[in-house]
Amino acid sequence: MVSMKDYIVALDLHGTLLDEQWKISATQTRELIHLMKSLEGYASFYVCTGNDYDFVEKHLPADILALIDGLVLESGCILYEKRVKTYQVEDKALASAKDLHSFFTGQSYPFVRYFGKREATVSLFTSDDKRQKPPADYVEVIKKDFSKTAYADDFYVTWSNVAIDIIPKDISKWSLINKIKNSACVIAFMDSYNDKEICEFSDFAILPKNTTDSLIHHLRWNNKLVFPLHKFHIFSNQCYISQKPFADAVIEGLLALKESLFNR
Ligand SMILES: [Mg+2]
Questions:
Q1: What is the DSSP string of 67-96?
Q2: Residues 42-71: pLDDT tens digits?
Q3: How far, in Å, is the centroid of ligand 1 from the Cα of 16?
Q4: How far is ligand 1, taken at its centre, from the CA of residue 105, in Å?
Q5: What is the 207 CA–ligand 1 centroid distance (Å)?
Q6: d(CA 195, CA 190)
Q7: What's the predicted TM-score (pTM) here?
């Protein structure tokens, strides 16, 4: 469970901490570590991703991972905290996900580059670290085929900037963060449409420059104002967008949080 810190910083991977080549530079890593350490007494850090543990460990530098308090994996289906893995879905959902995975791997979609290794969701990657094919372009095909399966009422289809994900109903990055946050204030750093719940319901959403338009439209449609990040204020729970992409936006946001906290 979350310690008695005031803030939870929820960090997305693809498109937020990681750039188009799924990388974070040495300079960004250094700056992030410095900021995370300086916020240690105030904030818990959670990586929130559609991916599994192996992906996080492979792509996130070990020095950053060491400062992370917990991992929200497979879009909220699994919590990994203090080396303990907790499933947030019933065994039935795991069995259904397995069935769905078999169904979709049998379809031979030309636009799917590979399937992510998953236990509770299905993840169809249209992009990899070299070629970017926007999942949004193909989501209707997947939705149509998914609607014909026996699981259409138990799962839903969403997409990030790299993959189309099929996720158990009522599960999202937000459903898990909301469950563990206690009274902490949540600051979500996110970029894609699959992050719409956590961006909408967190106290703050901080979006990198590369944030997908569909996420910004969703937030505006739900009466959220999106301010430039340089206007960040700790007493003003809002959405903010950076002029910088990927991890540079995270660095800018954490710096703004630190300055706000220390200059109160
Ligand atoms: Mg993302």
A1: T--EEEEGGGTEEEETTEEEESS-HHHHHH
A2: 999 999 999 999 999 999 999 999 999 999
A3: 6
A4: 23
A5: 10
A6: 6
A7: 0.96
